[in-house]
Amino acid sequence: MSGDDDQWNDSNRAFLQAFMARSNLTLDEAKPLLAAIQTTYERKETLAEDITEADLNAHIAAANTRISPFDFEIRSTFHQTTRNRVYALVNSTSDPIIQLATIHTAEEISFLKRVLDAMFETYNTPRNEVMAITSMQAVRLHKAPESRRGDTQDGSATQGSTSQGLKMVEAEKMLRTLVDEGWFEKSKKGYYTLSPRSLMELRGWLIETYNDVDDEDEDDVDERPPRIKQCVACKEIVTVTEWTSDVFVGERAAPTNKPGNRRSVAGSNADTSRITMDGPDQNSDPSEIDR
């Protein structure tokens, strides 16, 4: 196949256009796409099974060369449950929350921030590192708490703080929209988590927002595990992992999903500084992984 890194042709243009129309791609999804593009470009049939990972990487490298001046980049990471490599087009410089604000209302962005706070603060404790949220839990956040609504720190009302939030039906619609846009994923048990694309694009913001230590908390920073954990090997954020029958991170850390006295990583004796994304131990029961 053609598609050298230093070549930019109609095949590369068609691939980039098709990629921009999607939130992300896997190799299996890219194979028929590239096969159709190459069939048209080279005017001879190319089958999906003829497409290799090297072909995909060549097109991605060529695309990245073209889009990098516009602060975009196609990045990849491993999906934490399927272990498939996922490729996504992400903004490499601007604040992703500001980026979302260009297509969503202020009330919707405030709702999204409350959901993220719930994922990584409310439902991410040393005992239960869930880092996920159910539909019911999320919809309850359709309005800001009374203590945060309508007043600033000095008690004076501000224009931006007078938002009445979303209706419950609007919150449910927003959750579906975030899934459709590729920001959230919804598990079989109804838990919302950040998608691979979100973890790549929000990585810096998540670490800065939820691993930041307040001045008064500096004394116990060594005792409290970081809310946002990263794989030691690949440095990617870890939100879903099961190591043994009683040490895990993700929705199975939720109290309702834990039989007996199963523990999250931080709530156990596990060494959280050595987290890797290699997945569960090969001797563990595969039926335990039901997300």
Task: Note down, in words, how this protein is organized.
With 291 residues, the protein is of the alpha+beta class. It contains nine helices and eleven strands. It has helices at residues 10-20, 27-42, 53-67, 96-101, 106-122, 135-139, 168-180, 196-201, 203-210; strands at residues 24-26, 72-78, 85-91, 133-134, 184-186, 191-194, 229-230, 237-238, 241-242, 247-249, 263-264. A three-stranded antiparallel beta sheet has the order 1-3-2. Strands 4-6-5 form a three-stranded antiparallel beta sheet. Strand 2 (72-78) and strand 3 form a beta hairpin. Helix 1 runs antiparallel to helix 2 and helix 1 crosses helix 3. The longest helix has 17 residues, at 106-122. Mean pLDDT is 77; it is low at 1-5, 151-161, 243-250 and 258-291.
Provide tags for this entry.
9 helices, 291 residues, three-stranded antiparallel sheet, disordered C terminus, disordered N terminus, 11 strands
